[in-house]
Description:
Blueprint: H1 23-33, H2 40-52, H3 63-67, H4 69-79, H5 84-103, H6 107-118
Amino acid sequence: xxxxxxxxxxxxxxxxxRDLRKKxxxxxxxxxxxxxxxxxxxxxxxxxxxxxxxxxxxxLDSYRASLGCCTCAQRTVVGFKGPDRELVVRFxxxxxxxxxxxxxxxxxxxxxxxxxxxx
Length: 119
């Protein structure tokens, strides 16, 4: 029904977010764009956007799903009221969480903790 909608923010949408804010944001997005999908920075960026866009509460019957993930993420980034610096700080916090998750060794427990933080 909505072929552009996924469960969580897909990394394929990251390049579309680059020019939506000022220079500091564009630099961050450009740096993330060239990294492979499994890189911790890509995972952290996706986690940050997943939280900001409330992806875990989206379902196929919602307006957000009808927009598609890329459009929803664009609206989320444009609608963010804080400065770009705050977005960079959120990214850095998400990166620390991803690092802890990857280093934990018990990925099932760490995954549950990340998901429960979003609820």
